[in-house]
Design a protein that fits this description.
Layout lengths: L2 E11 L2 E11 L5 H11 L19 E4 L2 E4 L13 E5 L6 E3 L2 E2 L2 H8 L19 H11 L6 H5 L1 H4 L11 H11 L9 H8 L10 H5 L6 H18 L1 H13 L1
Parallel strand pairs: 1-5
Antiparallel strand pairs: 1-2, 3-4, 3-5, 6-7
Helix pairs in contact: 3-6, 6-7, 6-9, 7-9
The structure holds iron/sulfur cluster, FE3-S4 cluster and FE2/S2 (inorganic) cluster.
The site of FE2/S2 (inorganic) cluster has 12 residues, from loops.
């Protein structure tokens, strides 16, 4: 069964813009992205929207629907009443390129800053061995599709552009945690890197990132909190403290 829905879509660029009203046909089983595509095909040929897979796996179609961060291709029209106005706006946490497309360069810059996986010396690729339990622990973090909904939602950077330089954000805390928990990663300073260079301390565990993750990654409980505990353990570990003090005395 079809009906006409009332949509309000943000149109503009980084110089400014406005919400524009549209009436668009909706068919049974459709998702927000279907409606945006129909709008583009029939009424607004120059509407910019980023998407690729339409299967919740490429992470491209992130936007805010009625103010909530969502993947447009996984957001069913049946979750909205037929007479409800559906408002679609670009991710608020990043600068707008055009219409629903945002510039997510910030995320790639933060990704580049993380030192790569460092394999142990003397072990060739193909000779790596690790316990299944360690594989499973990091598997959760590998599900990330880089939709950046968590990065968009975290209030530390969403409301404070000035924090972005020091704050890497939840997506990159899970990358740091994954490497920190990796038994074959030869760097032992991942937690310190998160504290000193990624702004881990700025996260006050509001869990908003976890709430919006379409892959249901337990970002806060399984990555951020364990990383915070490691930082504290290492800083206040009496054995480490004694070791460091003795070393210093020798110097
Ligand atoms: Fe998206 Fe989840 Fe990855 Fe964040 S952690 S970028 S919300 S998939
Ligand atoms: Fe932000 Fe997630 Fe921490 S929303 S404050 S990174 S728990
Ligand atoms: Fe790929 Fe939506 S189009 S996640």
């Amino acid at each position: 069964m079809s009906y006409d829905a009332h949509f309000r879509v943000w149109r503009g660029d980084d110089d400014g813009g406005e919400l524009v009203d549209y009436t668009v046909e909706v068919n049974e089983g459709e998702v927000i992205l279907d409606i945006i595509h129909r709008l583009q095909a029939t009424q607004a040929g120059d509407l910019a929207v980023r998407w690729n897979c339409k299967a919740g796996k490429c992470g491209s179609c992130s936007a805010e629907v009625n103010g909530k961060p969502r993947l447009m291709c996984m957001n069913r029209m049946s979750t909205y009443a037929e007479d409800e106005t559906v408002t679609v706006t670009p991710l608020r946490g990043f600068p707008v390129t055009k219409d629903l497309v945002t510039n997510v360069t910030y995320n790639y810059e933060k990704a580049r800053q993380i030192p790569a996986f460092a394999p142990p010396a003397g072990v060739a690729p193909g000779e790596y061995r690790m316990q299944q339990i360690d594989v499973e622990r990091s598997q959760e973090f590998r599900k990330c599709i880089e939709c950046f909904l968590c990065q968009n939602t975290c209030h530390v950077s969403r409301d404070h552009e000035e924090n972005k330089e020091a704050f890497a954000g939840p997506r990159f805390f899970i990358r740091a945690a994954e490497l920190d928990m990796h038994p074959l990663d030869a760097r032992d300073d991942r937690a310190n890197f998160a504290r000193d260079s990624q702004g881990l301390g700025m996260c006050n565990i509001t869990k908003c990132c976890t709430d919006v993750c379409p892959e249901h990654i337990k970002i806060t409980d399984n990555a951020i909190i364990p990383m915070k505990e490691r930082v504290v353990d290492r800083k206040y570990d009496p054995v480490r403290w004694l070791g460091k003090t003795i070393t210093r005395r020798k110097d």
